Amino acid sequence: MTDLGTRNPPAIRCTGLRHSFGDKVAVDGIDLEVPTGQVFGLLGPNGAGKTTTLRMITTLLPVTHGSVEVFGLDAGRRMAVRRLIGYVPQQLSADGTLTGRENVALFARLFDVPRRERKDRVAEALDAVGLTEDADRQASGYSGGMIRRLELAQALVSSPRLLILDEPTIGLDPVARSNVWARIEQIRADTGMTVLVTTHYMDEAEQYCERIALMHRGRIRALGTPAELEANLGPESTLDDVFRAVTGDQLDEGGIRDVRAARRTARRLG
Ligand SMILES: Nc1ncnc2c1ncn2[C@@H]1O[C@H](COP(=O)(O)OP(=O)(O)OP(=O)(O)O)[C@@H](O)[C@H]1O
Questions:
Q1: What is the CATH architecture assignment of 3-269?
Q2: Which residue of 27, 42, 52 sits with most ligand 1 atoms within 8 Å of its CB, as the best mutation to test the pocket?
Q3: Which residues form the ABC transporter domain (predicted)?
């Protein structure tokens, strides 16, 4: 019997997780548990170590110090773990020369969705993100919000148990942002999927995340429900205040590489 059947592990468990790029310590000893079915937000300024953490959880970066388990499976079991995860990275992954449907079908093939199920699963994923009507248009004509929803469909087509979204709404206008979140919420309600999301938008974290971890300089500095974190700081505190208290107002730690990446993403989204 696999570990999956023998107990009821959390969706994610990180223990003593560290990662360095040369001399730069990007993740500096993280302990984190995300229960199954939760929408969990990872917040922090540029360069806090959020993406590096996500990349270790998704097995794109090897775990060299500490451990990561996904539904009880060690991240070292890369292929088994990847089958459980849908990942929407910050860098856009949709191909503008293909239609929406072709983009999702490509992911269905990549993720070994059985051939006879593919057509239906692609249609279901497109429907879940509200792109059925536009599915046969070339993706280069999509708005930024539609591209993000298309990428959600790409991540959903393999029916993952854990959906990981790195800045899913960066560069989008408020209507497109709430549209993306409405889809995420609906999918979660329909499937019970666990969602791990990074965002810079405190209002989104407050509204949509059941629990959040605030990262700064590679460490988790605060962990709890938005209401708990606010109450801990003091009456009338907002999540913005908590963020400022934790980061000491240093909202931009990441340097030119991170800012360029964020701008590039926002620009490509139009
Ligand atoms: N491939 C890399 N090579 C060298 N340094 C890197 C690399 N990736 C990340 N870093 C550095 O590690 C630190 C953490 O970066 P990371 O991208 O994880 O932060 P982040 O919290 O996701 O930031 P952002 O909100 O800007 O995406 C930063 O100082 C960053 O410059």
A1: 3-Layer(aba) Sandwich (3.40)
A2: 52
A3: 12-242
Give the Cα separation of 116 and 111 in Å (integer): 14
Q: Give the residues across from 33 on adjacent strands.
A: 13
Closest residue (by CA) to atom 6 of ligand 1?
Answer: 21
pTM (2 d.p.) = 0.86
Ligand 1-lining residues (CB < 6 angstroms): 21, 24, 26, 44, 46-52, 254-255, 257-258, 262
* ipTM here: 0.96
